[in-house]
Design brief:
alpha+beta, Chorismate synthase, AroC fold, five-stranded antiparallel sheet, 7 helices, 18 strands, globular
Length: about 350
C-alpha cells in the first residue's frame, strides 16, 4: 500500500491501524543535535486524544508516545526517529456488524474496490485515529520551527454553520472549541448539543496562521508552498477543501482589490495569504481547511452489503460528534511537516549559492 510517506528532505511515514496493536511514525531527515524527549511530543498528543469532552469519542486512550530510535543522550542523531503509540482501549466487537456492510460516507466501499479487502474495525488506516501518528511527527517538526522563530497556530473559525466574527486568537484556548469569538463559542456549544441529541454530526472550518515564516520557501511550479500545504491538509480524512488567503472569495474580487500593494515599509495588505507564485512572501501564512461532518451517525441510513443487497444501517460504537476541536493539532502538524521540509530544501539552495 503506497501513499504512507510525505516530504522530500524531511520524510515522515506513518503506520498502524485504529484497532491494531499500535500506531507510529518514522521520521527521516531530522537534523542532528536537537534536544528531543517524549514529553515534547506528548504535549501535542494530549490535545488530540479522545475522551476529553462529552461530544468526543468516549474511547479512552492515553496516547503515550515512546521514542524507539534516533535519540542518543537526549539529542537527535540525524538518523531515523521511530515513534510508537500503543492502542490500549480497543473494542473491535463494536464493529462486528459492519464486517460485510459498507458505511455511508466512509472509505469502506472504495477500499474494497482498490484492495479487495478492508479492515472493518474502525476503518483501519482510514480511521481518524491514524492522525495520532501525524501529530507525534508534527511535534518534532514544530520543535525545529520554534528554533527558527516560526509559530503555527490553528483555531476554530466555524462549527455547524456558526462562524467566529471577532476575537483575539491568543485567547482562543479559553473555551473548549479553541474559538477566538466567545459569543460564537457559546452558539457552537448549543449547535453541538442539538446535533448530538438528534443522533447527528457537524462539520466546521479550521483556520491556521503561521507567523515568522521566512520569505523564499516554496517553488514557482510543481512544488508551490501553497500546493504542498493544500495537499498535506487534504490528506487528512475529514478535510474536503483548503483555502489560502481569501480563497474562493478572491474569485469575486477585482485585481486591484486582490493585489497586495508594496510600500517601502513592506506589504500594505495580505490578500495573498503570505504566498506569491508558490513562494512565501515573509508575511503571515493564512490557511483554512473545511472539515466535513463525521460520517458515523446514530441515525438510520441506507446502504448495501458486500453482495449489493440493501441494508438499513444504524452505526453504534464510540464516535465524536464533530472533528473540532480534536482536528486542530492535526492541521497544525501537517502544516509543520510541510514547512520544515521546505525550510530544509531552501537551506540546501542557499548553502549551494553561498558556496
Amino acid at each position: 500500500m503506497s501513499g504512507n510517506t510525505t516530504g522530500v528532505l524531511f520524510r515522515v511515514t506513518t503506520w498502524g491501524e485504529s484497532h491494531g496493536p499500535a500506531l507510529g511514525a518514522v521520521i527521516d531527515g531530522c537534523p542532528p543535535l536537537m534536544e528531543l524527549a517524549a514529553a515534547d511530543i506528548q504535549t501535542e498528543l494530549e490535545r488530540r486524544k479522545p475522551g476529553q469532552a462529552k461530544a468526543s469519542s468516549p474511547r479512552k486512550e492515553g496516547d503515550r508516545v515512546e521514542i524507539l530510535a534516533g535519540i542518543f543522550e537526549g539529542k537527535t542523531t540525524g538518523t531515523p526517529i521511530s515513534l510508537i503509540i500503543w492502542n490500549r482501549d480497543v473494542r473491535s466487537g463494536d464493529y462486528d456488524a459492519l464486517r460485510n456492510v459498507f458505511r455511508p460516507g466512509h472509505g469502506d466501499y472504495t477500499y474494497v474496490q482498490k484492495y479487495s479487502i478492508r479492515d472493518h474495525r474502525g476503518g483501519g488506516r482510514a480511521s481518524g485515529r491514524e492522525t495520532a501518528a501525524r501529530v507525534a511527527a508534527g511535534a518534532v517538526a514544530r520543535k525545529i520551527l520554534a528554533r527558527e522563530g516560526i509559530m503555527v497556530r490553528a483555531y476554530t473559525l466555524a462549527l455547524g454553520g456558526v462562524r467566529a466574527e471577532t476575537g483575539i486568537i491568543a485567547e482562543a484556548r479559553q473555551n473548549r472549541f479553541n474559538c477566538p469569538d466567545p459569543v460564537a463559542a457559546v452558539k457552537m456549544e448549543a449547535a453541538l448539543k442539538k446535533a448530538q441529541k438528534a443522533g447527528d454530526t457537524l462539520g466546521g472550518i479550521v483556520e491556521i496562521i503561521v507567523q515568522g515564516c521566512p520569505a523564499g520557501l516554496g517553488a514557482p511550479v510543481f512544488d508551490k508552498l501553497d500546493a504542498d500545504l493544500a495537499k498535506a491538509l487534504m490528506g487528512v480524512g475529514t478535510v474536503k477543501g483548503v483555502e489560502i488567503g481569501p480563497g474562493f472569495a478572491a474569485a469575486g474580487m477585482t485585481g486591484s482589490q486582490c493585489n497586495d500593494p508594496l510600500l517601502p515599509s513592506g506589504f500594505a495588505a495580505n490578500h495573498a495569504g503570505g504566498i506569491l507564485a508558490g513562494i512565501a512572501s515573509g508575511q503571515d501564512l493564512v490557511i483554512r481547511a473545511a472539515c466535513k461532518p463525521i460520517p458515523s451517525v446514530a441515525r438510520e441510513q441506507d446502504t448495501v452489503d458486500v453482495n449489493g443487497k440493501p441494508v438499513k444501517l444504524t452505526i453504534g460504537g464510540r464516535h465524536d460528534v464533530s472533528v473540532i476541536p480534536r482536528i486542530l493539532p492535526v492541521c497544525e502538524a501537517m502544516v509543520c511537516l510541510v514547512l520544515v521540509d521546505h525550510l530544509l530544501r531552501q537551506r540546501a539552495i542557499v548553502g549551494f549559492l553561498s558556496g
